[in-house]
Write a structure and sequence with these properties.
The complex is a heterodimer.
Chain A (H helix, E strand, L loop, with lengths): L2 H31 L8 H5 L4 H4 L4 E2 L4 H7 L7 H17 L5 E5 L7 E2 L9 E2 L3 H7 L4 E4 L4 E2 L1 H10 L2 E4 L3 E4 L7 E7 L5 E5 L14
Helix pairs in contact in A: 5-6
Chain B lengths: L1 H18 L3 H31 L5 H24 L11 H21 L1 E2 L3 H17 L4 H7 L2 H11 L8 H20 L6 H16 L2 H8 L4 H19 L9 H21 L3 H4 L1 H13 L4 H26 L10 H21 L3 H7 L2 H22 L1 H18 L5 H14 L9 H21 L10 H5 L4 H30 L1
Helix pairs in contact in B: 1-2, 1-3, 1-4, 1-7, 2-3, 2-7, 2-8, 2-12, 2-15, 4-8, 5-7, 8-9, 8-10, 8-11, 8-23, 9-23, 11-12, 11-14, 12-15, 14-18, 14-21, 15-16, 18-19, 18-21, 19-21, 20-23
Classes of the chains: A alpha/beta, B mainly alpha.
């Protein structure tokens, strides 16, 4: 055999060996990922397989944005966004599509706030104006009004049977009135946000809700 | 359910319409596999039109855009099919459409039935909600591009128009496109060196290995920009390889070559609109085009074919934004002037190539494609060195985070040991590079690595964890790594086959 032929043969065998090593690496990887199949227990199955999967496993949420929000990463940082998404989605569902207008307090802090997580940082509002704007085609009107509903007013609303509950402490007065304009209110403890049709005044204390 | 399946079906049909003039050259496999990613460009056009008309990206606008594109494609197709220099290739048979539709729509149906998706805040806060915005208002803004590009928000808008509240089933469809393109390309590139059975075996094996890696499965379900970026880059490289690599198949006429260059250009467009930094990564197909073009005839018509397909939709979409709001300013994101400068830079490259090809001395030097490729490789390395010198702290931090993520926290398992192994195999052992396609992939890897480090070193250096941008972006190049691995394995097998034949011949 010539020197060149010998070199070529040597090269073939080295290349084949390298290919096999690389193939082995892939097969090893595949053996670690082969439990990832669409089944009900998939998240549990794949969680032990390292950081890649630990926090973001496939979730069975279907085509429902609210289901996504229910199971999405639970970080306080995202709370205002989650709430704004639920508020907007609730309004869209009650309206049957894009709303005409959503009236919100000029100062969104009035719907709830929490101290900054950083010392000396600004107070954080609990509803994201950015998401409200994005999800409602910018049809947000900022007005100065008192958004607080008293316990008595809320009791009347509860008794009306028109309240529909959504995740993240959001409730809608869904009287199937075809309302397209909404106004945001909040309870005295600033925990639950209420969407009320804008053409409908909240009930006054001790009286019946206006029809 | 209907929205998620519907958006895949509609995107497939839109892609068929867009690619129909070049379908004969692409062949059934590439044509159908590229249709879904190409269809996303149609929704980007619809979004640009909606911004001009002030119409939401709902069903009427989506349908009208599809019809207009189909009509234009029909006219181009008539000219293409009957003009001079027509390829002898035949159009894909009707049943291939049925198989493609069954595959993509069927996969979307299965995924929708199972209801699984993977999402992070980027997914629900930006892709879905920007899609909602585009659906409601039709207004494509600089903020949308700066944060998430255009093609995915536009596709989410179409999904919403079709009734989906959360659009996720077309991400696995994009994964299917990647798998189909890699399998077909491995089998096609190996045609000169291996028999049918062996090259199909290699192609299927490599594709199966790729699709069973954790990152591939993850990105197939992840509502984000990575699978569309990967398939766009793959389309671009496949198109350029078929058009320019000597010995590649299906390049018998000018129109065949243009067809592949149009596919490459559409891949570049897809890359540009998939993510805000996609415009920077589009330098990869641009440089590879320049190198391939310089060595293969330096025809002006090739420049027109590639750059018109590449820059047409991005220039239209971004032009609309520039006209509406000027050069946007978006803190910590891609700025309007940066996007404009990149677009202008690519257009300038086209003009530069057309100009230098007319200067005989330069043209002759450029014709040495191997030297030009080496110059580009060295140039890219030089740029990287200069970046480290100019911005050492951030570049070092970006590199350190990249290292810690790719080799640990990023969840890639062995893949970033595998990838350099494949590169070393092909660079060090000539027996593993016999098809002529390898240099293009190697240069693409280098350009990708340099671009990724520059983008992150000069914008956001990153963090430790799989969610780091550079860690996720690195996925875009992995299908090309598997493509190169398949080609290298085929080359090595063919070397053994030849040696057996030589031994037989000498024995007889």
């Amino acid at each position: 055999m010539t020197g060149r032929g010998h070199a070529q043969r040597w090269q073939r065998w080295v290349a084949a060996a390298v290919c096999l090593v690389l193939l082995g690496m892939l097969l090893y990887d595949a053996s670690r990922a082969n439990v990832v199949w669409p089944s009900d227990d998939m998240p549990q199955n794949i969680e032990p397989h390292g950081d890649w999967w630990r926090f973001y496993t496939p979730r069975k949420v279907g085509a429902d944005l609210l289901a996504v929000i229910r199971v999405a990463e639970q970080k306080p940082l995202f709370t205002p966004k989650y709430r704004a998404i639920v508020i907007s989605e609730a309004a869209r569902r009650a309206t049957g599509g894009l709303i005409d207008e959503m009236i919100v307090p000029q100062d969104l802090y009035e719907l709830g706030s929490e101290p900054s997580r950083q010392p000396g940082g600004p107070i954080q509002e609990l509803v994201s104006w950015m998401i409200l704007e994005r999800m409602n085609a910018g049809r947000i009107t900022y007005e100065t009004y008192d958004p607080t509903l008293t316990d008595a007013q809320l009791r009347i609303l509860e008794e009306s049977g028109e309240l529909v509950s959504y995740p993240r402490n959001v409730r809608v007065i869904d009287a199937q009135s075809g309302a397209r304009r909404w106004r945001l209110f909040v309870d005295e403890r600033k925990q639950v946000i209420y969407l009320v049709p804008a053409n409908r005044e909240p009930p006054s204390d001790g009286s019946e809700a206006t029809p | 359910m209907t929205g998620n399946v519907g958006v895949v079906a509609a995107t497939l049909v839109a892609g068929w319409a867009l690619l129909s003039p070049i379908r004969r050259t692409l062949g059934a496999w590439v044509y159908h596999a590229s249709a879904v990613p190409a269809g996303l460009l149609v929704w980007s056009v619809a979004s640009a039109a909606g911004t001009v008309l002030g119409v939401g990206l709902g069903l009427p606008l989506a349908v009208v855009t599809m019809v207009v594109i189909a009509a234009v494609s029909f006219v181009v197709d008539r000219w293409w099919a009957h003009g001079d220099g027509m390829s002898s290739a035949v159009a894909p048979a009707w049943w291939t459409y049925a198989v493609a539709a069954a595959s993509f729509v069927g996969l979307a149906g299965v995924v929708t039935y199972l209801g699984y998706s993977i999402f992070t805040p980027d997914s629900w806060r930006d892709y879905e909600l920007f899609g909602m915005w585009l659906h409601d208002t039709g207004i494509f803004t600089g903020q949308i591009f700066a944060q998430r590009g255009l093609s995915l928000p536009a596709t989410h808008a179409v999904g919403r128009a079709l009734g989906s509240d959360w659009t996720y089933a077309f991400y696995p469809a994009l994964g299917l496109s990647v798998a189909a393109l890699v399998a077909n390309e491995v089998a096609t590139v190996l045609r000169p060196v291996l028999g049918t059975r062996m090259r199909v075996t290699v192609a299927v094996a490599v594709t199966l290995l790729m699709t069973t890696t954790a990152p591939f499965l993850f990105q197939s379900l992840y509502v984000h920009s990575h699978m569309i970026s990967a398939v766009s880059l793959l389309m671009a490289l496949i198109g350029l390889g078929r058009a320019f690599v000597p010995g590649a198949t299906d390049r018998s006429t000018d129109r065949d070559r243009w067809a592949w260059l149009i596919l490459a250009g559409l891949g570049g467009a897809g890359l540009s609109l998939a993510r805000p930094d996609g415009l920077a990564y589009a330098i990869i197909p641009s440089v590879l085009f320049a190198v391939g073009w310089a060595g293969e005839g330096q025809r002006a018509s090739d420049i027109v074919a590639f750059f018109s397909a590449f820059l047409g939709v991005p220039a239209m979409a971004l032009g609309v934004v520039f006209a509406r709001e000027g050069l946007w300013v978006e803190p910590t994101r891609v700025q309007g002037w940066q996007a404009a400068a990149l677009l202008a830079g690519y257009a300038a490259l086209a003009v530069l190539l057309a100009t230098v090809s007319r200067v005989r001395s330069l043209s002759r030097w450029l014709a040495r494609a191997d030297l030009l490729a080496a110059a580009c490789a060295l140039g890219a390395f030089g740029v990287l060195i200069a970046a480290f010198a100019a911005n050492p702290v951030d570049m070092y931090m970006a590199s350190a985070y990249a290292y810690s993520n790719l080799y640990g926290a990023g969840g890639y398992n062995s893949l970033w040991y595998f990838a350099p192994g494949v590169v070393a195999l092909v660079v060090l052992l000539p027996v593993a590079r016999r098809t002529g396609r390898e240099w293009m992939l190697l240069l693409a890897f280098e350009l990708f690595a340099v671009t990724a480090l520059l983008v992150h070193g000069f914008t956001h250096v990153g963090r430790t964890g799989w969610g780091d941008s550079l860690s996720r972006v690195s996925f875009h190049v992995l299908p090309l790594v598997f493509l190169l691995f398949g080609i290298a394995c085929g080359n090595v097998i063919s070397a053994f086959t030849e040696s057996v034949q030589e031994d037989d011949a000498s024995a007889s």
